[in-house]
Amino acid sequence: MKNKLIxxxxxxxxxxxxxxxxxxxxxxxxxxxxxxxxxxxxLEESGRNxxxxxxxxxxxxxxxxxATQNYLGYVKNSTLIxxxxxxxxxxxxxxxxxxxxxxxxxPYYKFVYFFLLxxxxxxxxxxxxxxxxxxxxxxxxxxxxxIVLYATFSLTRGVFLFVNYIRTLPxxxxxxxxxxxxxxxxxxINIVLPMxxxxxxxxxxMDALWYWNDFLLPLMILNRSRGFWTLPLFQxxxxxxxxxxxxxxxxxxxxxxxxxxxxxxFAQKNIIKGLTAGALKG
Length: 282
Prior knowledge:
mainly alpha; MetI-like fold
């Protein structure tokens, strides 16, 4: 059996590829490392050596952060807005998409589909001021108004993804369910919705990250009252208030990252499982 030698071109490609991967790893993990280690340092210790590990397990920054002006209230606001927006989204998007797919030959449903798709081509920066003025006029500059906006904006991308996904599902299963006596609603709940699991998990991951980390919409809608703030708004104003205490800012960033990282990790596993199950069924 002959030994396979690596050609010079292949070796150079191997070295270049790993250099790029290493650079990407440093760019991604470097900021996370700095946030983590400086969250456990005092301001004086961080000033002496910004990149070193903390000399001891110091939780003073965390204690001070949770004692700061209604921090848990801002966590509650972000959690409430994210969870309710996701619940409304996963209720509306699959059902609207299913109705469009199964009635696409009718002009009304075709019009609704293309009307929603138009939102994909309009930059959010263009509509933010008219939307803010409209929400001011109907007196919805609060958490409920922000949830309504998130649910509305999520329809464009969500319907686009779900319509194309539902088109790939086997229609024979729906026909068999109707032969067994299921009406349209039961067919949707028992047959179609479970098969959209991978796409549903993908949508939840993408939009949960958006809702939790969004800054622009909360700034325009919730900045009227400090009690309405979400975590990104608190961090923006917190950094200004504590402009010299950057270790406290790092602590605030770390706490706000942890919940959404956990959600992302678990939802990512569900996406992989759903895609694998779909491939095996196919």
